[in-house]
Design goal:
Radius of gyration: 14 Å
Shape: elongated
Number of strands: 3
Strand order of the largest sheet: 2-1-3
Mean pLDDT: 96
Length: 93
């Protein structure tokens, strides 16, 4: 798997559906924009797109904090930091 795929999979493991939002039937997809350091630390994080629900958007940012540290960069990636943009979908099954 590519490093970007590893980061996306790592992030998804930390997603939690906010119980209040789930009970209210809130669904949607927010977008998170973040930058990682070589060691997998989060240098910056912001909401790149709203789901339309503040609780889901807040969880998207909280998930990013819980997911630290991310996997360190593989040796073939030479830059000191890397930007990412990921969708975070909240849908009740």
């Amino acid at each position: 798997a590519s490093y970007r795929q590893m980061v996306a999979a790592h992030l998804q493991r930390f997603k939690q559906y906010p119980p209040v939002a789930k009970a209210a039937g809130q669904q949607g997809t927010s977008r998170v924009s973040f930058t990682l350091s070589r060691s997998g630390g989060v240098l910056s994080v912001s909401l790149a797109g709203s789901s339309g629900h503040s609780q889901l958007d807040a969880e998207t940012l909280a998930m990013e904090r819980r997911a630290q540290p991310f996997p360190a960069f593989p040796a073939d990636i030479k830059q000191s930091s890397m930007p990412f943009n990921a969708p975070v979908a909240f849908y009740i099954r």
